[in-house]
Specification:
With 165 residues, the protein is mostly helical.
């Protein structure tokens, strides 16, 4: 035990700075959102290249990605009217809109099932990729506006990957 005491002697007690914790959580969530978006986009691109004639229907996923994009746009539009720093505005908004920055999972269904439901529109893989690209561009705007506010941690994290391959 004495040896352990000597080793921990130089460690500092963490200082409780609530905003820093909030900012760290916000940055982590933004980074995870980017990783999920990038992964979903890459997965769909690979699926199209491997199975170009696949007629899987992605209506539900398309709706969810559009909802993701609408929530981002709503945050971007409302943020100038929020008090405090972005991480604080994000935390308040997340209480009201719990799906903010949550990237949907992609789920396809058989084309025949959709025809039986008599849907007016059918989203296939290339269409879903276009919707995901639009979501990525909206997320890019979200990050770009944050970088203008000089959120130093997020700025460093977002420089590491390109938007599209």
């Amino acid at each position: 035990m004495e040896e352990l005491g000597d080793e921990t002697e130089h460690l500092q007690q963490p200082q409780n700075e609530p905003y820093q914790d909030l900012e760290t959580a916000y940055v982590a969530h933004a980074c995870l959102t980017w990783e999920a978006l990038h992964c979903q986009y890459t997965h769909m691109c690979q699926k199209i290249s491997c199975q170009p004639e696949n007629r899987t229907c992605y209506n539900q996923s398309a709706e969810q990605f559009q909802q993701f994009q609408v929530l981002l746009q709503r945050f971007i539009e409302n943020e100038p009217f929020e008090l405090g720093m972005r991480a604080e505005a994000y935390a308040r908004t997340r209480k009201v809109l719990p799906k903010l920055l949550q990237v949907p999972n992609i789920k396809g269904s058989d084309q025949r099932e959709k025809e039986e439901e008599e849907s007016d529109w059918v989203v296939i893989a290339p269409d879903l990729i276009t919707i995901i690209e639009s979501s990525v561009l909206t997320f890019h705007l979200f990050i770009k506006l944050d970088m203008r506010k000089q959120n130093r941690v997020l700025e460093i994290k977002t420089r590491s990957q390109p938007l599209f391959n």
